[in-house]
Amino acid sequence: MVEAIRKAYKEGQEDEELEPIVAIDLSGQALGRFKDGDSVIFYDIRGEREIEITESLTREKLSHFPVKKNFRLNFVTMIEYNSSLKVKVAFPPDGKIKNTLAEVVSKAGLRLCKIAESEKAIHVGYFMNGKHGEAFPGEERIIVPSPEGISSYALTPEMSASQVVKEISSKIKDSSCHVIVANLANVDVVGHIEDKASVLKAVEAVDRSIGKIIEYCRANDIVLVVTSDHGTVEEWFYQDGTVNTGHTRNLVPFILADFSSRDPNQWSLKPEGGLIDVAPTVLGLLRLEKPTEMTGKSLIQNISVNDKTKRKLLLLILDGWGMREERHGNLIKEAETPNFDKLWSQFPHTLLKAAGEAVGMPSHTVGNSEAGHLHLGAGRRIFLDRVKIDKAIEDGSFYQNPSFCWAMERAKRENTSLHLLGIVSHYSSHGTIKHLFALLRLANKLDLKRVFVHTLIGRRGEKPESGAIYVAKVEEMCRSMSIGQVVTVIGRFWALDREENWDRIEKTYRALVYGEGKPVLLE
């Protein structure tokens, strides 16, 4: 399979959009396809991009494309992707995250509007509301469609930023709207593409948007709060000089420009903080009491308890905009950003932690949009599923997990196959090869005979051609334990969709179930 991936690279394909590669035997039959009664463990951990493919594999009928009739799988997901899915969940949610920023604003009777491109709608909606999908009373969500019908956002680095700004302007003028949360997606989305010229255009498109937003806020007496969820293109190179298209561990900006005041510079900010401090700061400016669940603290040092000023506020999230002093490989500094620079130099500002333990992840790990928006809204540190799963592996409880054991023991008892499906990466927000290896060890312990691995690959925060490297590691692990076989490789573009691109999901479905793809004979 590794040789087939490297051949695809030579033909111009890349990890993200790699066409399905499927293993066949000497007779030309596809090996390790999903069959009725088989057990499947989907070990990805993020959730929102995993819903569509899970739905297609677990529903008896699907309106988007034809699925196999009388097809039943014993399906387990690592975490809960959606409560409506008919699956067992190995690590279910601990409970509802209460009193997020949106919920507190709603309870106060204020109207909140969230504005984002479709590429980031789930982040300002679902994740920022504490993984709560439904809008709270008084919460409006405006989703601006991201560009459609293009092969890459590198072709349209401006994306739909101008329309997002237009919607922001409309809500700023809307007297019934008290709080606006908006996301400019360009830097993060285009930053995942190895195209420097397009990234610079994306950064500059965001900066132009900032300039227009400043004008609207100043003209309408709006408090403008600017921050980010994580860094990306401010650290464009790895130490060996190869391009880093992933996220970073760098700090992110926080700027407070209070255009509702005669003195926009009146506020004094703490010298440092974290994303969990943003919600308490916003609530303080709105004169709303911080709930006890929020352990973050306001970044404002000189706010008075006697301040009764009513303010209208815009929280602007510059997705992927990190801060780094060094200029080499820093595409934020290399781009023309006069509007951001003016904000930073003229108004109170500080830096925030947006990675690792500060956003509920393991130490020294990079930030991501999901953790970033979750903590921006929650105002407290929430340990992510990855931490919980890693701990279970360390203390051994992973290997007694009832859902895993149910799927594997059923496959053994009924003499059916076990399929392990998921991302293969050292570290991805969707999962890690470490969790796959733990599942292989459990399958080996239970003496399963037929175990098939279906790998999703994609270069986000990985070096070029990393997919082949990780698939080779999986194959080596399978050989060392004499269990399991890699039988499918497919780019994550085709499997991990969240915008109802059902043609992509169908391609993945047909590869997994029918073996449609580039055939590779396994010796």
Write a structural description.
The protein is an alpha/beta fold and 523 residues long. The protein folds into two domains: 227 residues, 2,3-Bisphosphoglycerate-independent phosphoglycerate mutase, substrate-binding domain; 281 residues, Alkaline Phosphatase, subunit A (3-Layer(aba) Sandwich). Helices cover 33% and strands 16% of the residues. The chain has 17 helices and 16 strands. The protein has an eight-stranded mixed sheet, sandwiched between helices. Strands 6-5-7-11-8-9-12-10 form an eight-stranded mixed sheet, sandwiched between helices. Helix 1 packs antiparallel against helix 15, helix 4 crosses helix 11 and helix 5 runs parallel beside helix 7. The longest helix has 24 residues. The chain is globular.
